[in-house]
Amino acid sequence: MNDDIVARIESNPKFHQFVQKRNSYGIIMSILMIFAYYGYILLIAFNKEWLATKLAPGMVTSIGIPLGVGVIVFTIILTNIYIRRANTEFDDLNAQILKEANKK
Amino acid sequence: MISQSTRKILFATAGLLATGGVLAAGADLGNTTKQATNWVAIAMFVVFVAITLGITKWAAARTKTAADFYTAGGGITGFQNGLAIAGDYMSAASFLGISGLVFANGFDGLIFSIGWLVGWPVITFLMAERLRNLGKFTFADVAAYRFAQTPMRTFAATGSLVVVAFYMIAQMVGAGQLIKVLFGLEYTVAVIIVGVLMMCYVLFGGMTATTWVQIIKAIMLLTGATFMALAVLWKFGFNPEALFAKAVEIHSKHDAIMSPGVLIKDPVSAISVGMALMFGTAGLPHILMRFFTVPSAKEARKSVGWATTWIGYFYILTFIIGFGAIVMLTQSPELYYVDGDLAKGLKGGGNMAAVHLSNAVGGNLFLGFISAVAFATILAVVAGLTLSGASAVSHDLYATVLKHGNADSASELRVSRITTICLGIVAVFLGIAFEKENVAYMVMLAFVIACSANFPILFMSVLWKDCTTKGAVAGGIVGLVSSVVLTILSASVWEAVLKNPKGSAWFPYSSPAIFSMTAAFVVIYIVSKMDNSKQAQLERSLYPAQRVRSETGVGAASASGH
Does CATH number 3.40.50.970 belong to domain B2-438? Predict the structure, then answer.
């Protein structure tokens, strides 16, 4: 491993901005996920009746079912949104930082 | 049959077991009865074995170095790895167990599915990329990156092996029971076949063969499940409401299958089980290992994106399949129920819902296909487990701890292969030894240990500057020991296995994760803070360089290893 490159990256303020930006994005996404999942679980623990309410009078499907499938779909979408941004914007920033470190 | 089988929950316990045995009925692979030999299923399975052994032969020619063995030379693409991760993670228990649970209880099956999925975003947002950037072959590479190698590796390898052992026993016992009922083979014969095949894949084909077995299995499972779900929906004009209406009309519990039942009782258990699943996934060694098979952090991210998508999609399918089974199987009780009597339950046990449904929608040929898929599923999972166990021994314990990093690739490879044989033999013996035992708690315990021992040390060593060897090892040990002790003291072991009277369990919740994981983090924090030794100062001084590498990938192990 090239210590010079590491030192140059370390001293580049862009690196710290980049890490800060990506990490806070990751943390926000994690909080959203935790909120959705534990929210659903706690809803089941504390308010089964509401989840069992029918979507509309005369229907059998309860609110809890689309909501539960919704948590699964939300998980998939959230993950892919993060990956899309990480693979484009963040990777570009990363490449730029590496390029600057190699150039000097 | 159901009440008997509640005592033998296998994997379902890993779901949200707020109430111990009650909900287990549906997701139980134990206590099966041997069925007539199913030749179509066996023929299909033989074709699968022939193809995978062919791949193993091809992979064997490419498995020359330790890097090939552990990571397929790092040449797997993100898409392929995503499928392989899905193949590694979607066990027979989640396919048959969850659809069986939906068949028995309706709504509650959905809660399981969600729980099994939510660990993946955590891996994506916090771990995948850093793992790829810091590690080479095992997660211990990452956890021990800037730490004293001997204690850290020894602990991480122990954590891996313990998780692998519990996961493996549950898989082997489940395999024996399942194959007995699907193929009409003897339990012992089934366990030996699984053991021998998995040894062949791993021994000769290493990660390359294991990956392709997992990919093929994932494709077969997703195709089969998609076909079944479409067949069910097609019958109801693609209107879920019509499907649910019919199910409510027919099911003995009627409208209760549309609402959450007994699965979640007290909020502490609910949160605790949720934590074990969410953070445990990010500490499973056989899953973490898959991130080293791709060439870059970008591909690692792509693989976890695909894996999450496939696994989530699959869980939605199992829900539809479970409801399809309610509707279609009860219409022909003479075919699918014991003595044709609805009250006596499904032939072969509650987990056979999806299998019987395959017969109902696609006849004997499709039944054979789905049975072969179930067998392939187990093989793919145990091969992944064996490989990660072997790498913990050969890479972490032998090459790094014993030989201080001076082992050459050839001898490391030899040790991995010897370990693979040993693990295979041990797995077969344990599978046979635990045939009649209650192994319900084991998968859950594997998740609890993964989230209380492996995940905290990984997380803190990568993200917290002040973490030291002493802190990480102390916290990891606390997490490991408290997981095991509290699980023994909980109802799933204290009452269900040790046969103490009901209600006598010391630990009142279904999972210790909320306590054991917290304890691990607290101990890592306190011990690291108090550690001011020279070694600790050195470790802290190495953090900035580790951070640069983990965030940017500078100096990350190249595709071919070095």
Answer: no
